[in-house]
Amino acid sequence: MHELSIVMSIIDIATKQIENSEATEIEEIELEIGALSGIEEKSFEFAWNQGVKNTPLQNAVRKINHIEGVAGCMDCMIDFSIKNLFDACPICGGHFLNIKKGKELKVKSLLVNINNKD
Asked: In the chain, N or C terminus with fewer CB closer than 10 Å?
C-alpha cells in the first residue's frame, strides 16, 4: 500500500511548513489528486486517518480536488477523457498518447494558524 508512504510525505511537507514559519497549527490542507495518479481512494482514506494522528494535520480540514484524466492522441491529434493509462484513442484506436492531465498528486495549499503573542 503506497498510499501510506504518500500520506507520510504529505505530513512531512506540512511539518516543515510549521517549522519554517510562526504557525502553530494547520487549519486546512488542499490536495490535488489525479485520476491517473495510481492512488486508491479507500486505501488513501484509511492511511490518512491513521497517519495524521498526533501530527500538525490531525485537526485540519482536508479538501481534495479530483483531476480527471485527459490525453492527447499523437496519431489523430485529438484530446479526450481517459480513465486508465492503457485506454485507446476513441477516434483512431491508437495507443500513442500524451497524458495532459490526471497524474497530479500535490499539496496545493496549506492554511495555517499563526499564534500572535502581542
From this structure: C
DSSP, collapsed to helix, strand or coil, labels residue 118 as coil
> What is this structure's pTM?
0.83
Q: Choose among 41, 23, 22, 21: nearest CA to 31.
A: 41
What residues contact 109, with CB distance under 8 A and at least 6 apart? 28, 29, 30
Question: pLDDT (tens digit, 9 = 90+) per residue, 2-41?
Answer: 899 999 999 999 999 888 888 878 999 999 999 999 999 9
* Domains defined along the chain, listed by start: 3-113 (3.30.2320.80)
Cα(55)–Cα(50) distance, integer angstroms: 11
Give the angle 89-95-101 at the CA atoms, nearest 5°.
Answer: 70
